[in-house]
Amino acid sequence: MFGVVFPELSFPMDISSFSQIDPFHWLLDLSSMAGEAYHSVKELCIFLLNPNSLPAGKALAVYAQPPSGPFLFCGALHGSRPSALLRLPWPDPADVAATPAGSSAKIGVSIEDLAALPAVADAGKEEAAARVALKVGENLFNFMQSFCGVDGNRLVVPMDILDQWFKKFQERSRKDPTYLKAFGL
Protein backbone atom coordinates (compact mmCIF):
# COMPACT_ATOMS: atom_id res chain seq x y z
CA MET A 1 0.00 0.00 0.00
CA PHE A 2 2.78 2.50 0.90
CA GLY A 3 6.53 2.91 1.09
CA VAL A 4 8.82 5.11 3.15
CA VAL A 5 12.32 6.54 2.73
CA PHE A 6 14.21 8.43 5.41
CA PRO A 7 16.38 10.73 3.25
CA GLU A 8 20.10 10.05 3.68
CA LEU A 9 19.34 7.39 6.32
CA SER A 10 17.56 4.48 4.65
CA PHE A 11 16.75 2.60 1.51
CA PRO A 12 13.09 2.48 0.47
CA MET A 13 11.09 0.48 2.98
CA ASP A 14 7.68 -0.99 2.28
CA ILE A 15 4.76 -1.71 4.58
CA SER A 16 6.40 -4.96 5.75
CA SER A 17 8.94 -2.89 7.74
CA PHE A 18 6.06 -1.66 9.91
CA SER A 19 4.21 -3.64 12.59
CA GLN A 20 0.56 -3.88 11.65
CA ILE A 21 -1.58 -3.05 14.68
CA ASP A 22 -4.92 -3.68 12.94
CA PRO A 23 -6.22 -3.41 9.34
CA PHE A 24 -5.97 0.42 9.46
CA HIS A 25 -2.88 1.14 11.64
CA TRP A 26 0.87 0.52 11.27
CA LEU A 27 3.80 1.38 13.56
CA LEU A 28 7.55 1.71 12.92
CA ASP A 29 9.94 1.71 15.88
CA LEU A 30 12.86 4.06 15.11
CA SER A 31 15.18 2.51 17.72
CA SER A 32 16.75 0.15 15.17
CA MET A 33 17.50 3.06 12.84
CA ALA A 34 18.39 5.91 15.18
CA GLY A 35 18.51 4.59 18.73
CA GLU A 36 18.16 7.42 21.23
CA ALA A 37 19.14 9.97 18.54
CA TYR A 38 15.64 9.85 17.02
CA HIS A 39 15.62 13.67 16.76
CA SER A 40 18.35 13.39 14.10
CA VAL A 41 15.75 11.79 11.80
CA LYS A 42 14.33 15.09 10.55
CA GLU A 43 12.03 14.03 7.72
CA LEU A 44 10.52 11.14 5.86
CA CYS A 45 9.33 10.64 2.32
CA ILE A 46 6.18 8.55 2.14
CA PHE A 47 4.43 7.42 -1.02
CA LEU A 48 1.47 5.33 -2.10
CA LEU A 49 2.52 2.37 -4.20
CA ASN A 50 -0.84 2.52 -5.97
CA PRO A 51 -2.92 5.71 -5.72
CA ASN A 52 -6.07 3.61 -6.14
CA SER A 53 -5.28 1.58 -3.01
CA LEU A 54 -7.19 4.08 -0.83
CA PRO A 55 -10.99 4.35 -1.07
CA ALA A 56 -12.46 7.72 -2.04
CA GLY A 57 -12.57 10.12 0.90
CA LYS A 58 -9.82 8.26 2.79
CA ALA A 59 -6.24 9.31 3.46
CA LEU A 60 -3.07 7.78 4.83
CA ALA A 61 -2.22 9.91 7.88
CA VAL A 62 1.33 10.01 9.24
CA TYR A 63 2.24 10.66 12.89
CA ALA A 64 5.50 10.89 14.84
CA GLN A 65 5.71 9.89 18.50
CA PRO A 66 8.71 10.88 20.65
CA PRO A 67 9.54 8.45 23.47
CA SER A 68 6.85 8.63 26.17
CA GLY A 69 5.10 11.43 24.27
CA PRO A 70 1.89 11.84 22.30
CA PHE A 71 1.54 11.15 18.57
CA LEU A 72 2.02 14.36 16.55
CA PHE A 73 0.34 14.76 13.13
CA CYS A 74 2.87 15.21 10.29
CA GLY A 75 0.71 15.11 7.16
CA ALA A 76 -1.31 12.83 4.93
CA LEU A 77 -1.48 11.22 1.51
CA HIS A 78 -4.53 10.58 -0.65
CA GLY A 79 -5.35 9.82 -4.27
CA SER A 80 -4.50 13.30 -5.55
CA ARG A 81 -1.43 13.64 -3.30
CA PRO A 82 0.29 10.25 -3.67
CA SER A 83 3.62 11.25 -2.10
CA ALA A 84 5.03 13.78 0.34
CA LEU A 85 8.22 14.81 2.09
CA LEU A 86 7.14 15.35 5.70
CA ARG A 87 9.06 17.10 8.45
CA LEU A 88 9.04 15.19 11.74
CA PRO A 89 8.01 17.53 14.58
CA TRP A 90 10.25 16.20 17.36
CA PRO A 91 10.48 18.32 20.51
CA ASP A 92 13.80 20.04 21.13
CA PRO A 93 16.10 17.50 22.88
CA ALA A 94 17.00 20.15 25.46
CA ASP A 95 13.33 20.39 26.48
CA VAL A 96 12.83 16.63 26.89
CA ALA A 97 13.40 14.79 30.15
CA ALA A 98 15.58 11.69 30.11
CA THR A 99 14.06 8.94 28.00
CA PRO A 100 12.75 6.10 30.16
CA ALA A 101 14.41 2.75 29.52
CA GLY A 102 12.57 0.67 26.96
CA SER A 103 10.79 3.58 25.26
CA SER A 104 11.59 4.72 21.74
CA ALA A 105 10.38 7.06 19.04
CA LYS A 106 7.83 5.73 16.58
CA ILE A 107 6.25 6.58 13.25
CA GLY A 108 2.54 5.79 13.01
CA VAL A 109 0.55 5.46 9.81
CA SER A 110 -3.22 5.05 9.67
CA ILE A 111 -6.08 5.11 7.21
CA GLU A 112 -8.48 7.89 8.20
CA ASP A 113 -11.26 10.04 6.77
CA LEU A 114 -9.66 12.80 4.71
CA ALA A 115 -12.26 15.35 5.85
CA ALA A 116 -11.41 14.72 9.53
CA LEU A 117 -7.69 15.50 9.12
CA PRO A 118 -6.08 18.95 9.47
CA ALA A 119 -5.41 20.73 6.17
CA VAL A 120 -2.57 18.73 4.64
CA ALA A 121 -0.83 21.75 3.13
CA ASP A 122 -0.73 23.55 6.50
CA ALA A 123 0.35 20.63 8.70
CA GLY A 124 3.36 21.61 10.77
CA LYS A 125 3.83 25.04 9.13
CA GLU A 126 2.65 26.96 12.19
CA GLU A 127 5.05 25.10 14.48
CA ALA A 128 7.91 25.55 12.02
CA ALA A 129 7.21 29.29 11.75
CA ALA A 130 7.16 29.61 15.54
CA ARG A 131 10.52 27.78 15.83
CA VAL A 132 12.07 30.03 13.17
CA ALA A 133 10.74 33.19 14.86
CA LEU A 134 12.11 32.04 18.22
CA LYS A 135 15.57 31.30 16.80
CA VAL A 136 15.75 34.62 14.93
CA GLY A 137 14.63 36.41 18.11
CA GLU A 138 17.34 34.62 20.13
CA ASN A 139 19.91 35.64 17.54
CA LEU A 140 18.81 39.29 17.78
CA PHE A 141 18.78 39.21 21.59
CA ASN A 142 22.29 37.76 21.76
CA PHE A 143 23.55 40.39 19.31
CA MET A 144 21.92 43.22 21.28
CA GLN A 145 23.22 41.86 24.57
CA SER A 146 26.80 42.24 23.38
CA PHE A 147 26.27 46.01 22.93
CA CYS A 148 24.04 46.84 25.88
CA GLY A 149 24.65 48.70 29.04
CA VAL A 150 22.55 48.77 32.21
CA ASP A 151 20.66 51.76 33.54
CA GLY A 152 18.89 50.69 36.73
CA ASN A 153 16.58 47.88 35.67
CA ARG A 154 16.74 48.73 31.94
CA LEU A 155 19.03 47.54 29.18
CA VAL A 156 20.41 50.38 27.07
CA VAL A 157 21.41 49.68 23.45
CA PRO A 158 22.52 51.94 20.59
CA MET A 159 19.66 53.41 18.52
CA ASP A 160 20.83 51.75 15.30
CA ILE A 161 21.19 48.27 16.85
CA LEU A 162 18.43 46.76 14.69
CA ASP A 163 20.04 48.09 11.52
CA GLN A 164 23.43 46.73 12.60
CA TRP A 165 21.95 43.32 13.39
CA PHE A 166 19.93 43.09 10.18
CA LYS A 167 22.93 44.02 8.00
CA LYS A 168 25.05 41.40 9.77
CA PHE A 169 22.25 38.83 9.43
CA GLN A 170 21.90 39.51 5.69
CA GLU A 171 25.66 39.44 5.13
CA ARG A 172 26.05 36.13 6.93
CA SER A 173 23.14 34.66 4.95
CA ARG A 174 24.76 35.69 1.67
CA LYS A 175 28.20 34.32 2.61
CA ASP A 176 27.02 31.02 4.12
CA PRO A 177 24.16 29.29 2.24
CA THR A 178 23.65 26.86 5.14
CA TYR A 179 23.25 29.63 7.75
CA LEU A 180 19.48 29.99 7.32
CA LYS A 181 19.03 26.20 7.55
CA ALA A 182 20.11 26.47 11.19
CA PHE A 183 16.96 28.55 11.72
CA GLY A 184 14.78 25.75 10.36
CA LEU A 185 14.05 27.27 6.93
TrEMBL record:
Residues 130-181 form the Hikeshi-like C-terminal domain. One of its GO terms (cellular component) is nucleus. One of its GO terms (biological process) is protein import into nucleus. GO terms for molecular function: nuclear import signal receptor activity; sequence-specific double-stranded DNA binding. Residues 17-119 form the Hikeshi-like N-terminal domain. It comes from the Eukaryota. It holds the Pfam family Hikeshi-like_C. Belongs to the OPI10 family. This is Protein OPI10 homolog. It comes from Dioscorea cayennensis subsp. rotundata.
